[in-house]
């Protein structure tokens, strides 16, 4: 009996969450679609963009130009991902960006993002490389 009640209330919560999540969707989806239609064609780039906007854009800027809201107060400045390779400390290849995200850059506001997990770091590295070329 107890278990049944628990199951019922859990499904009610799940249903409520589902409805809330659905209710929010149109609002969230709209800006992404208008802001970056080309990006959405590659699901990995689209996912990378989402993680980047949440974790990195405050410093690196929405397009990775190093001009996020916090950039003015930082020293050294956040990398502009379009900067030539010789201006990067670890480098602008996917492998080098992965190293930066796992280890951070010592003595700078660029901390390690290892906690995001390998999958998200791989998506981010691909997206940072993409921003460097687009
Ligand atoms: C608190 C501000 C801040 C945040 C947030 C931040 N960065 Fe940085 N990032 C920096 C700064 C500052 C540098 C430049 C470090 C230096 O030159 O020593 C940098 C450098 C880099 C570099 C270049 C490393 C190199 O080889 O020169 C990459 C790549 C990078 N960040 C990616 C990211 C990604 C991806 C995220 C989000 C997961 C992120 N950063 C979040 C401030 C930030």
TrEMBL record:
The keyword Oxidoreductase does not apply. Residues 43-134 form the Cytochrome c domain. One of its GO terms (molecular function) is metal ion binding. SUPFAM superfamilies: Cytochrome c. Residues 1-29 form the signal peptide. It comes from the Bacteria. InterPro entries: Cyt_c-like_dom (IPR009056), Cyt_c-like_dom_sf (IPR036909). Keywords: Heme, Iron, Lipoprotein, Metal-binding, Signal. Gene3D superfamilies: Cytochrome c-like domain (1.10.760.10). This is Lipoprotein.
